[in-house]
C-alpha cells in the first residue's frame, strides 16, 4: 500500500526507537532513540567506542535487531528490509572500492548488485559523478585517486540507486582539512538541495555546524539530541566542546578531537 504524498512528506527519514545491543555481557547500545528528518543534516557525535558503528550495523542489517525498532521512511528494517534499505545509501568508515579497476567499473558493479540495468546504470553513473564533481575521472583507475577523491566516489556509489537517506560513518578519517571541508560542504548541499536526510557519524567536534542537528552518543547512551544551539543552551555550555565535556564528564575532556 502506497503512502499518501502528504504523509510521506512528514515521515522521518530515520527513526531509532529504544534500540539496545550487546556483545556478550558488554552493552554497546543502551536504549538509544533518535530521529533524522528529511532534508536534515544530523551529526552523530561520540568518542571512538561510543557505539556509532554498532548503530550503523543495525540500521544496515549487518547485525540483527534484538531490542527496539528501526524505521526508514516508516518501513521497519527488520520486517520490511527491502522497502527500508532501498531508500538507504551508506558510506562506511573502511574503504570499499576496488582500487585495481576504474571508477566507472566500480560503479557499474554496484549498480548490478542493485539490479539496475546496464543502460540505466550508465545514465545514473554520469549523474552521480557530476554531483560529486568527478565526472572527468570516470575512466581513471581508483588506485590513482587521492583519498579525498576516493571518498567522493564512495558517496557517488551510495547515491547511485537514488536513496533518500544517507549514512556516513567517520567519512573524513585520513583526509586533510581542505578535503574534509569539501566533503562536508558537498554532503550538506545534498541534504539541503535534494532533500536527502543525512546521519553523519564523527568524533571530530568541528564537523558539527551551526545549522545541524546533533546527537551526543556516549558509552552507548544518547545524552543529548536536538539543534546544535538548543543542545548547547540546554546544558548551559559555552560551545559544543564545552557541552560535550559537561555531558560526558571531565575524564573525557581531552579525547574528543579537533582535526589538525
Describe the structure.
With 260 residues, the protein is an alpha/beta fold. It has two domains: 1-87 and 164-260, Rossmann fold, CATH 3.40.50; 95-162, no CATH class. The chain has helices at residues 5-10, 52-59, 81-85, 103-113, 118-131, 147-159, 177-194, 228-235, 240-248, and strands at 14-23, 26-36, 41-45, 67-72, 75-76, 88-91, 165-169, 197-202, 213-218, 221-227. It is globular. The model has no long low-confidence stretch (mean pLDDT 90).
The tally of beta strands, per DSSP, is 10
Helix content: 25-40%
Any idea what the CATH architecture of the largest domain is? 3-Layer(aba) Sandwich
The succession of helices and strands, N to C, reads: HEEEHEEHEHHHEHEEEHH
Reported by name, the CATH topology of the largest domain is Rossmann fold
Class computed from helices, strands and strand pairing:
alpha/beta
Poorly predicted parts = none
CATH top level assignment of the largest domain: Alpha Beta
Shape: globular
| Average pLDDT rating | 90
Count helical runs: 9
Overall number of structural domains: 2
Keywords: ATP-binding, Nodulation, Nucleotide-binding, Transport
Family: Belongs to the ABC transporter superfamily.
Organism: Bradyrhizobium erythrophlei
Protein name: ABC-2 type transport system ATP-binding protein
Amino acid at each position: 500500500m502506497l503512502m499518501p504524498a502528504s504523509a510521506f512528506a512528514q515521515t522521518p527519514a530515520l527513526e531509532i526507537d529504544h534500540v539496545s545491543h550487546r556483545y556478550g555481557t558488554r552493552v554497546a547500545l543502551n536504549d538509544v532513540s533518535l530521529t533524522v528528518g528529511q532534508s536534515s543534516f544530523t551529526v552523530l557525535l561520540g568518542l571512538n567506542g561510543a557505539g556509532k558503528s554498532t548503530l550503523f550495523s543495525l540500521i544496515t542489517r549487518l547485525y540483527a535487531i534484538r531490542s527496539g525498532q528501526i524505521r526508514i521512511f516508516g518501513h521497519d528494517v527488520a520486517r520490511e528490509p527491502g522497502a527500508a534499505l532501498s531508500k538507504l545509501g551508506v558510506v562506511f568508515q573502511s574503504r570499499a572500492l576496488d582500487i585495481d579497476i576504474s571508477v566507472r567499473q566500480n560503479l557499474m558493479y554496484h549498480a548490478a548488485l542493485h539490479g539496475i540495468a546496464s543502460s540505466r546504470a550508465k545514465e545514473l553513473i554520469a549523474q552521480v559523478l557530476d554531483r560529486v564533481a568527478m565526472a572527468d575521472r570516470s575512466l581513471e583507475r581508483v588506485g590513482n585517486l587521492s583519498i579525498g577523491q576516493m571518498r567522493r566516489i564512495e558517496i557517488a556509489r551510495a547515491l547511485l540507486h537514488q536513496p533518500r537517506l544517507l549514512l556516513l560513518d567517520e567519512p573524513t578519517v585520513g583526509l586533510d582539512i581542505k578535503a574534509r571541508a569539501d566533503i562536508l560542504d558537498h554532503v550538506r548541499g545534498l541534504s539541503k538541495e535534494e532533500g536527502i536526510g543525512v546521519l553523519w557519524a564523527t568524533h571530530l567536534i568541528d564537523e558539527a555546524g551551526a545549522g545541524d542537528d546533533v546527537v551526543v552518543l556516549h558509552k552507548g547512551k544518547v545524552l543529548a539530541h536536538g539543534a546544535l544551539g538548543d543542545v548547547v543552551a540546554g546544558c548551559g555550555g559555552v560551545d559544543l566542546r564545552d557541552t560535550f565535556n559537561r555531558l560526558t564528564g571531565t575524564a573525557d575532556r581531552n579525547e574528543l578531537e579537533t582535526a589538525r
